[in-house]
Amino acid sequence: MGKAFDIQSIMEFLPHRYPFILVDRVLEIVPGEKIVALKNVTINEPFFQGHFPGTPIMPGVLIIEAMAQAGGVLFSSEQLKEKNGRLFYFMGMDKVKFRKPVVPGDQIIFEVKILRQRSKVVKMAGIATVDQKIVAEAELMATIGEKT
Fold first, then answer.
1. What domains are there in the chain, each with its CATH number?
2. Reduced to 3 DSSP states, what percent helix, strand and coil does the chain have, rounded to the nearest 5?
3. Would you please indicate which residues are annotated as catalytic (active-site) residues?
4. pTM of whole model > 0.85?
């Protein structure tokens, strides 16, 4: 089993900050291979004010964004020396499926694996589960941007 990261360590890898950092902890990381991360979903999330009043459901696009952020930690942990001030950009998603709603009180576990990697582009497959049941899955692509 690889190293675990808390939120402070995650913020060293991702440029996202509140309210848009959607990964709370990395449980396991095997650089160049896979990551297991989690998000605690609470009623305090700003998106629940409007999605949906009286029936709070986490937007599916944010579940995929959180999955992509977990993948970003995986990719950037491998590319850290090369990264040097560069951002990672979400390029695309395929085979996206939503299986069950995610609600306040759920804990989403993301498992993201690298399928293919070139010097600046990575293709990953991710699965999001709550209570060991799949809630979403997708294939994701990301790239390292130019220096800012």
1. 7-144 (3.10.129.10)
2. 25, 40, 35
3. 51
4. yes
